Amino acid sequence: MTRYYFASRYSRHEELRSYREELMRVVSGATVTSRWIDLHNNELEASFTPEALAADPAGCWKYGQADLEDLANSEVIVSFTGPGGKGGRHIEHGVAIAYFDNHIWLDLGGPPRDAFRLTIVGPRENVFHCHPATEVFATWGEFLWNELRSQS
Predict the structure, then answer these.
(1) For the chain, what are the domain ranges?
(2) What is the DSSP string of 40-77?
(3) What is the pLDDT of residue 115?
(4) Are the C-beta atoms of 92 and 76 separated by less than 8 Å?
(5) What is the pTM of this model?
(6) What crossing angle do the helices spanning 13-26 and 140-151 adopt, rounded to 10°?
(7) Where does the pLDDT of residue 140 fall: very low under 50, low under 70, confident under 90, or very high at 90 and above?
(8) Quick one: which of 8, 31, 80, 120 has the fewest CB in 10 Å?
(9) pLDDT tens-place string over residues 40-54
(10) Under a CB-based contact definition with an 8 Å cutoff, are residues 41 and 35 in contact?
(11) Pick the residue with more confidence: 70 or 104?
(12) Digit-coded pLDDT (tens) for 61-91
């Protein structure tokens, strides 16, 4: 069973739900830990505005904390790149690199370092996407084909 964390712009949640369904249908035992794609159990319809973040940082942080918990419970980060967004997905990718490089995963009770994967669907967007362990796929279809092929 492989646990995936999807990182992307919040506005792509519907698209990523369809990817989750496709992944779970074709890759035996696949699960997606990202609660944000279900709008955090329908509690958060859109990402926070700067005004909302300033007005209630503690209330907003509970969602960031949930995302980090979901990431810690995964074995593969799938970072979807593309225009837009406020950058949270880049933070998540950076945290995943820190877990990978510093063995933090084991301290959190997660999988061994060599079981964790860094992946990107789309073009590299910053220097952190050049980490030597990062697998880059141009499209979702390419990523899915790779996962399906690695099962056999």
Answers:
(1) 3-151
(2) HHHT-SSPPPHHHHHH-HHHHHHHHHHHHHHHHT-SEE
(3) 59
(4) no
(5) 0.89
(6) 20
(7) very high
(8) 31
(9) 888 888 888 899 999
(10) yes
(11) 70
(12) 999 999 999 999 999 999 999 988 888 899 9
Q: Which CATH code of 3.40.1410.10, 3.40.50.1220, 3.40.50.450, 3.40.50.150 fits the domain covering 3-151?
A: 3.40.50.450
pLDDT at 99 over 80: no
Whether residue 45 contacts residue 114, with contact meaning beta carbons closer than 8 Å, is answered with no
d(CA 72, CA 66): 10
CA distance 33 to 76: 10
As beta bridge partners, residue 137 has: 121
At which residue do the structure tokens 């949930």 appear?
Answer: 66
The answer to whether residues 105 and 126 touch, using CB atoms and an 8 Å cutoff, is no
- The pLDDT value recorded for residue 145 is 96
